[in-house]
């Protein structure tokens, strides 16, 4: 397991650490001994046009030596009603693992100081340092994308032999939501177009990008223009109420035993500009990209990356985190074989989970166990295809779970 820098939190402009009590409903195990619990995160306040970017530290999570089978999230109001995307757009939620020094816990909780006593642990993906560190995380497509892992596979957590002495395994949410009620350009707001935000006049003089350099003025939109408490422009005279929302998330798990097969989780990024230092690949993921204006709308926009896999395994699950406008995403093996294609589902109605014109789900690949093997060192090709229309903050993240073996 690789440790990530504290910059993981800085990347997504996480400003505030909150510690309110969460709530859960624990359900009985089913016949396969799968347990489940539904939790509510601490709440956050939104208002028309407001951007909310938060870290929710020490979220409620099943404890003990377990194997997680699924992790599903949606945004709800104080009465538990699902919030449609055209009111509050869920740009992303990421669940990140960290370990905390037990003796430092009271100090951290009181001071919100993460400089001491906490170590972040990222997934097995290839992106450099602090980029895309999460174990679970999607966005607007959350409600319609399955996270279920087939038996006997699970993500092993809480193994006491793998947790440093004196530390405790914990989880946080990194979230971005955009309230688009009353906005002049709802689509532009969800894409974090800089010109639509009330950014300070010196924004380009003080804001640095992923590479640590000042953002160029050619940066027209994306994560860095959607900062906490920034306001997206509203229609003249629009007034609307604020409200408190939260994440409702359901986790299914089993108690770990000899019947479970562990999985490793990888996030691959179609913006990964891989280069080498001798025999060592260096990954330069950008996390997002812009689709420029053009006159060839009938030709899809394609973004490709060739990504070497230091460690391979059997493919058990595959899907993608994308944005509205995606046509499809495909992961290819080194010999050109298709490993998995994830296709979008677009809404056709008004109800939450079926919002017209929004990306509301991505298909998932469940290969027959043992049928697809990625070899150690194999170079995979990730191809993200969008409609060829101007778009900022486009993403092409592919999620795969790999098993080193198919059975115990």
Automatic annotation (TrEMBL):
Pfam short name (any one): SURNod19
Keyword Repeat: no
Domain of life the protein comes from: Eukaryota
Signal sequence, start to end: 1-24
Entry keyword set: Signal
Protein name, per record: Stress up-regulated Nod 19
Gene source species: Vigna unguiculata (Cowpea)
